[in-house]
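Ticket #4471: complex job returned nothing on first submit. Input attached below:
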Amino acid sequence: MSKYEINELYDHAQGAFHLKNLLTDLGERSVYDAAAQCNRCGYCGTVCPTYMLTGRETLSARGRNQFLRMLIEGKVAGAETAAESFGTCLLCGACSSACYAKVPTPDLALEGRRSQTGYGRNFLAGVAVNLLLNNRGFFEFWLKAAFLLKKLGFAGLADLLGLYDFLGLPALSAAQGVLDRAPLKFLRDIFNQDPALNPKGKKTVSWAYFALCGPNYIFPEVGLASVALLKRFSGEGVFADNFCCGLIAYNYGRLTEAKEFAKKNILRFEELTAAFGNFTVVGDCSSCAAFMKTYEQLFTDDESWRPRAAAFAGAVKDILEVIDAEQVTARDRGAAGRTTYHDSCRACHGQDIRKEPRAVVKKLAGENFAELPESDWCCGGAGAYAFTQPALSRQILDRKVRNIASIRAATVVVGATSCLLQINAGLKEKYPSAKAVHYSVFVDGLTNPSAKAADVNPPKGRFTSPTI
Amino acid sequence: MFKKHRFETVRKELEALLGPENIFTDAAELLMYSYDAGLARAKPEAVARFTLTEQVAPAVKILYAAGIPYLPRLAGTNLSGGTIPLKGGVILNLSLLNKIRQIDTVNKVAVVEPGVVNLRLQQELDKFGFFYAPDPSSQKVSTIGGNIGENAGGPLCLKYGVTADNVERLEVVTPEGSVKRWSYLDPGPDLMSLIIGSEGTLGIVTRAWLKIIEKPKLVKTAVAAFPSIENAITAVTGIISSGIAPRALEAMDKMSLSAAKKTLKTDYPAGSEAILIIELDGAGDKKINQELRDIEYICRAEAAVYFKTAAGAEEREALWQARKGAYPAMARLAPNVLVEDGVVPRPRLPQALKETREILSKYKLTAGLLFHAGDGNLHPNIVFDERDLQEGKRVRKAGYEILKSCIRLGGSISGEHGIGVEKRVAMNWMYDARTLDFFAGIKKAFDPADLANPDKILPVACDHRAGLRYADPAPFGDAAAALVNDLLLRARSGIPSAVTGLGTKLKKNRIMEGLKTAETSALNRVLELDRANFTVKAEAGISVRELKRSLKDDGFEIALPDLEGSLGGAIAAKTWPPLRNLILGMDIALADGAVLTLGGKIVKNVAGYDALKLLCGSLGAYAVILTVTLKTALRSHSACGGTAGSESGFEPDEYHCRLKKAFDPRNLLNPWMYGRVEGRG
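Support reply: We reran it on our side without changes. The output follows.
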């Protein structure tokens, strides 16, 4: 590092807000070196959704890399100048997939966001993250209260009372409008009472189900399906009774808390490892699974935690890569109608998982399978993106819906709960004859001998033309 | 740095035209348009984003009237700093002008807006069984507008020609904001081709009519591995001299290969230092297979340790991905890469390679070597880290030395990446002062106020070091010297001349009474047939028939129909428009007797404006063509019969007149044609 002059004003020693090093495809790099690795060839241009929509370099992957670099070199007046550039990044990572040097633009964009004064130090976000971290019961109580209001027909009331804001999850208030049913029983409640998942009496297990926030708080049916699949295809396992993976905190810019979440989960993992030896940690939301695979990067400045984080990360698997196409046979191929597969960003770009889930879905759908054009384009969900960048998110979503409509799909299989919310919101409004379904729900619905065909959500009624 | 108020004077007008949401002057946006894929940097004063092609001309008018510099920008993948706003001003962001307007498979033309990404066009054409020949390695992201601005090539240009050979017509917004539609088929000097490769300094393309070609029935790709890159290059010479015309011949060394290899499954045998990708196309299996066998034989004779024809589409695709990914993959090796783009006559490629190697080792640099080997185009990809200032300096020096070496070998400083700002200084080494003035005259004729992408292509500082050029083995003969002398003497006393060749185009009665003639009929020799390079240089007064006969006697062929009259006459009268694709170089005499050497013996050259094509159809009124260098044994682009001379239909465009004024201000050559030159422009 000392070889080059860098900006003294950009203080990387502010450990609370910055990662020490990034773990890139080319090895461990300082943030500056990682950004400088972008040689501006521009080959990422056509895959960056925000660039393709706006034609603006400022909203391109290359632009973001350059911005961070110039920030570090002191060529930018203040990090706030770059707020739009970094803030509009979907963190989808399509650029890194296209990049030969695999420059980690999403990590760099987050680094850029964290450089902005006050970023992630929003009071409400802090409350939410702290509640999740230290007082889950309290958090869950109020979330259930909000959902209860919705159930009782006072959907707007929770909003009005500011419950979601209070929980620091404004995105959820936007999302709950598209939720068909809000769960009053979270996965943790269910699985902690499931004797089959109880660690007691077991000597070895081959998997531990890790309940991520999306399935846990919003889509318990996803978790139930995942566990059903794991039970059928992967032998004995347990419920990890874990904490939030920390991605929410990380994306909010709260690095310290993200590390705390990671540490709690690592400790939990170590407890289980002590009891059962090696097993895989299975998550069923690609965004979180991808994040957990990079836990080591959070601790590049911490020699004692780093190897432990690496051990945890090495055990993580996305449900998308767990099931082998050889293992499955469909009960009823036609049940889901014309089926397609949407590559959730953090599955394809974040973890390079493309083939396995596609093979399974293809096998189950048979001739009903159709490839989705631009299947690895972000849907615009991207965590809270739909809330923070509504206009862009909407345009990106429109493009996704248009692609779905172009192949007249009835079922869109996805791997992340954020995609589930976002794509269903778009479909409901503009192409109601299709529905997005989580991979686990889709696979379980078509392979579970006791499930009803209706679980896969086959669309009712005739094909309607898209209204885009 | 720049007067900020300058833009404020036009802000309202531009906002009204484009919408306020498309005018950006915030610090972030300006910073983001201060770089491209090269190393130069400068910030604009504003960025204007366009959503309709019709907005370009009025916006340009506004800026021109206000005296604000501007330049068009698309994907920003330029490797020579061409999109850097050196004088501030406004960046015209055209990337949303990305509609494919029409694909016409009957007339074999695609009509596109400038922001269409090359690969996207290819994908759309593919659905109809067609393709567009120029396929630069950057085609995944680079746009047609940018390709036209730089006159991009690509692997396939070996057989199908560069961008200039594949454009039928352009809609151009001139620097002052008029809208023109020019085709190379128009009578008179070829303005369309002048725009191609002009890097946004002569106008902005808002619509392009591109030639599309039916996909060949068969394409076969083979790869050969060699113990050294020299062997691969020598094999290329062997393949070309055997008379086989592959559609692509691409060489890459081990370093480029290992950076990009991710997509390649094959491991080449130990000791492989370079590979050669050979691609053939055609209609018949039998012929291609025979050619492949011949090529394998040639490669094996050059010590190839491996030769394999790709089994299917997937293997082919992997080979091309490795080749086209070689440049971006350099990012794995170091944070920066300088891609040089020298061209030499193909037989001198081994020598150029040797010198390049020596220069690299002298400056202690590493580079992946890529070659469009069939075209004599070298791309050393020098990797470095610009943060290491010393290394950066060495890279620049080495880059310049490589260019000088190419010039000395009779080549050019750029084959397809353009001059931009980074090679401006090298223009001084390539051309003498008179030729640079000639180019400057073109720029001035189009853009008198110097606002369209100013300070690009032409050197700004006087660093004249002419004489680097390869000593021409065929100097002017007595006849040419006498003609030039006549022009010189007449120019001194202001006596005009009628330029004639063999008298087939310019009938005696057309010549103004009492006008002296400048006859090229005595310039009738074939000066040089370069058998290895497949070029022939002849004096312009030679009759086309005589040239063909002479070549035939030497066992060569030229893709020319039986044209009446002299070679120079056929060019000047544009009797057969495709002739422009064969011309590689010319010596010309201007009205004042100055002799300029344009082009050379290389098939790709984007150093300076394409004056060679401009002179096609110039009817002797711009300059007297003394010698012409032509490609031989190129397969004919549908050699049709000669069409009649087009002087009768020629009604000079305003820009024709302006150029006339620049080249021949006193109207000494064929003065009747631009009788009104004084009054216009």
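The CA atoms of residues 188 and 241 of chain A lie 7 Å apart. Closing as resolved unless it happens again.
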